[in-house]
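Data availability (excerpt). The following record was deposited with the supplementary files.
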Amino acid sequence: MKSTRLVALAACFIAACESPTRSAEVGEDLTPLAAKPLASPSITVTALPSLGGAAGANGINDGGTIVGQSIDAAGSGNAVKWTLQSGAWTVAQLPDGLYGSAAAINATGNIVGRGGDPHRAVLWPAAGGGSVVLGCAAFDFGPDAAVAINSGGTVAGYRRDGSITRAVVWRPGPGLCREDLPALVRGMSADARGIDDAGNVSGHAYDAAGKEWAVRWAFNGTSWNPPDTLKAGLYAGAWASNSGGDIAGSACLGTPPSGCQAHAVLWPRPGNLVRTDLGTLGGQVSAAFALNSTNEVVGWSLTSRNRSTHGFIWSTTTGMRGLGPLKGDSRSEAYGVNNAQSNGSRQVVGFSSVNSGTQRAVVWTVP
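Predicted structure:
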């Protein structure tokens, strides 16, 4: 699983234009903290085609298929996928993808997201085509959404229950019935955002005082255990998990709740190691939304003047490197990353835009 974060595209997006591949521009505004290395000049960013309007990419698998959402010429959102054909990226609406968004894709090409009005969790299977609304029709009602899928086909997401958000999963089997995950405190909200190949689910939940915790749910063979709070996980959220169970997200650094600055963090194999602060690109705030199997983490960070966000990729060897926007844009965010390919590069996906204007789906190639 390569991404667990939906990019929200508002109906007010205006038509997107295309831009050729270029080297990522890195200026003084992207200087990370602790003198970490700047982005390599050889990182390139490429605009992906759209259905006529704005677009954002949410996830990518090791086969290079990208998923996300695009606004069409009529102003409606569509769940889409991008594939590279004869050296050029092509975009296609997923079956029954109108009013939807694709959130994640697994190694075998199964895609999950949401669609319809009210939103329902949807699976687009790689085999057989078409789309499947997740859940037992007689019992499961929306609105709900799928945001992550592991290699075995177990899906994680959330549902709305009045004013409460509930973390849920759909496990392969008859009916694909939806299962609610235990809340940290009965009657309080919880949200699932990532799932590893062992079936452990990560996300965030609220305690009785309304404080947010980064949490992880495990299945004991017959039922779901109450969520475990991650180490140093108060005022934090777990936004993604890789196949091996490492978790990325954001957490409050400083003295919460006042004086708190959220930073992108990594929990390597929760329960074994404390969280790692990934830093920022010079600004006060950062957040992580995806990671691959070697703990290369992507997300966004405010830059040194706190004027805009820029995408980043972080690793233990390079630290945080900026992923610049397309030429003429001022903002970028990254939401998915795959593993290194045969040529040693990996692909990062997200969007690029001016601060308050058109979003364009993009893919960065990172050597």
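Summary of structural features: DSSP finds no helices and 29 strands in the chain.
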